Structures are given as C-alpha cells and as structure tokens.
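User: Just a sanity check before I run the rest of the batch. Below are the structure tokens for the first item. I only need the designed sequence back.
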C-alpha cells in the first residue's frame, strides 16, 4: 500500500500518508486491499483535487478490516 500510495501521489500531485494496523500487517491482509485502494486513490486525484491524502487500514470488530482513504 505504501508504494501504491506513493505512486498515486506522484501522479496526482498530492502528498500521501499510509497507516496500517500492525495486526493487519501481521495477518498479511493489507495486500487484499490493493485494488480498492488503487481506485480510491485515483478518485481522490481525479475528483477531489486533493493536496494530501491519508490511507488508513485497521482491524475492526468481528475480524473485519477497514480501509479509509480521506483527502
């Protein structure tokens, strides 16, 4: 996700910050979020004209994983 966000930031002209919950990293689940994160980052660049984007991945209740992309 770090490299994806960095590449999107470079193409979109914004800065990006990525935070991944260590529990999600240990489970190796962050890789499952690459495709939806790619689309959300593209939307931030295309529609929001963002200057800074944050990407957050957290373990949620019930074993769910939450992906947040905010500008």
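Assistant: Here's the designed sequence for the first item:
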């Amino acid at each position: 996700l770090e490299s994806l966000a960095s590449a999107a930031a470079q193409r979109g002209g914004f800065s990006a910050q990525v935070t991944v919950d260590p529990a999600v990293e240990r489970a190796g689940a962050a890789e499952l979020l690459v495709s939806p994160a790619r689309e959300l980052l593209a939307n931030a660049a295309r529609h929001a004209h963002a200057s800074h984007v944050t990407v957050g991945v957290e373990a949620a209740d019930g074993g769910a994983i939450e992906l947040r992309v905010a500008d």
